[in-house]
Amino acid sequence: MTCRFDKTSQGFLVKWGFFYFPYLEFKIWRQLPTAFLPQNINQYFILLPMAFDISSAYLHHGPRSTATMLDIISHVPSHLTKALYIPKYDDTISHFAIYDISKEYSEKVGVNPMGSESYKVELCLLRKPSGYHAGDNARFLVDVDASVSIHERVMGRDPLDAEVSSPIDGERSAKLQIHTGDSSFELTGHECYPLPEKETKKRIIRYPYMSMSGNHGPSKALRCDWQVHPAEKGPLRYELVDLDRQGEGDGSILAIYHHHGFESELPTSYSHGVLLLPNDSTPLFDITVVSSLMALLATIRKQPAARKRSRFRSLMASL
């Protein structure tokens, strides 16, 4: 199967076999300076993965669907300047790394309003670390088996470790254990659903919260929630809120996770995004937040893809 880039009046189309991906002319090429494009673009395929990421939105939503894709702009507290990249993974992946991309994120992505079209495009265009390039800074290694193990990568001191146990069928809680070398702390993550379900033409969407409680360090209790506010801040953004400081504005937001992609809702088939943390956060805080995020994302992926019944089928089922 061949791949070809065809020029149009507005940009370029990617042709893969018999299929065209015209969403490129609205999303990628508008963002790139003309000098960036090679004279014979058919010889260059480095942008092809990004083409499929972005054009998938076109296939699902149409070429001019920025409104239906919920480009809701939301405020980011100024203290959240540390950025960790969560690579794309699903329940078939057993190993992956989480990378620090703070510098690249602040220069190219963070300058755009979170949730905006430009934010999503720049996040998609950002070079993703893979461990094969100089400067790729893997902060954590994640192993997924019956439970999720998280290992800190650090030199000069003992690394921190964490383990997230999978909830037993029928239960809505997960256990998080943080190991600091000479001591351990345990937290409990409990999923709950304070928001009403959303009905679309094809399915019913649920918005889980993850309530975290337990000890975080010696004699320090932690009470926080992973919350989503679809109408106010968009369905692709979750924020970790300190319940003891709730109502204090930016000070109550401990971390933010934003999805990498153009979907109108968080996908349940995979996870992929960026995690924002305070610039002065401690390693213990970072691994605790990452562990709680792994529990949250696992909960989101386990949401049933419930399809909305037609009125006729609902009536027949009641007979």
- Distance between the first and last residues' Cα: 51 Å
Nearest-angstrom radius of gyration? 21 Å
- What is the overall shape? globular
Which sheet architecture does the biggest sheet show? 12 strands, antiparallel, barrel
Number of strands: 17
Tell me the strand percentage band: 25-35%
Q: What structural class is derived from the secondary structure elements?
A: alpha+beta
Helix content: 10-25%
Number of helices: 7
Mean pLDDT: 80
Describe, in plain words, how this protein is organized in 3D.
The model is unreliable at 7-13, 17-52 and 55-69 (pLDDT under 50). The N and C termini lie far apart (51 Å). The chain has a twelve-stranded antiparallel β-barrel with strand order 4-5-6-7-8-9-10-13-14-15-16-17. Strands 1-2-3 form a three-stranded antiparallel beta sheet. Strands 11-12 form a two-stranded antiparallel ribbon. The longest helix has 19 residues, at 283-301. It has two domains: 3-61, no CATH class; 82-301, no CATH class. It is 21% helix and 31% strand. The protein has helices at residues 24-27, 48-61, 102-109, 117-125, 230-233, 283-301, 311-318, and strands spanning 3-7, 12-16, 19-21, 82-89, 95-100, 138-144, 147-152, 161-165, 173-179, 184-192, 198-199, 204-205, 209-215, 221-228, 237-242, 253-259, 271-277. The chain is an alpha+beta fold. It has seven helices and 17 strands.
